[in-house]
Amino acid sequence: MSFVGIMNDFTDECTLLERSRVPDGEGGWLNTWTDGLRFEAAILHDNTLDARIAESEGMHATYTVTTHKGEPLDFHDVFRRERDGKVFRATSDSTDVQTPQTATFQFCQASAEEWKLT
Questions:
Q1: pLDDT digit string (tens) for 78-101?
Q2: How far is CA 55 from the centre of its chain?
Q3: N or C: which terminal CB in the chain sees fewer CB atoms within 10 Å?
């Protein structure tokens, strides 16, 4: 699904990443990541004073991610922004913040942090 109008100008193509574990050959496991579903999202960096202070003290950068209501993000979903390859992990469920059914513009929002695939 995609947004219409001006909101479409703020979105980027993203890919949900699916984690699986494979044996490492030495009795342990390695995480592998494969591309999953593609979706459109507007990803905005939280640049409030509190967020900037937290980042300067070593915290992950935080973001607000807006997706179409039909493409919600779940807590700890990992996804990549295709424009620059930056990876994010959702830190909330987007179904907690969504427009009512009667709204003509349907979207939901989740918070997210920058993430490194391990």
A1: 999 999 999 999 999 998 999 998
A2: 18
A3: C
Which pTM does this prediction carry? 0.84
Residue 91 has a CB neighbour count (10 Å cut-off) of 18
DSSP for residue 98: B
Q: What three-state secondary structure class fits 6?
A: helix
Structure tokens at 91: 């830190």
Number of C-beta neighbours around residue 88 at 10 A: 26
The CATH topology of domain 5-114 is Thrombin, subunit H (2.40.10)
Q: Are 12 and 43 in contact (CB under 8 A)?
A: yes
Structural domain boundaries in the chain: 5-114
Instruction: State how far the alpha carbon of 86 is from the alpha carbons of 27, 81, 114, 115, in Å.
Output: 31, 5, 7, 8
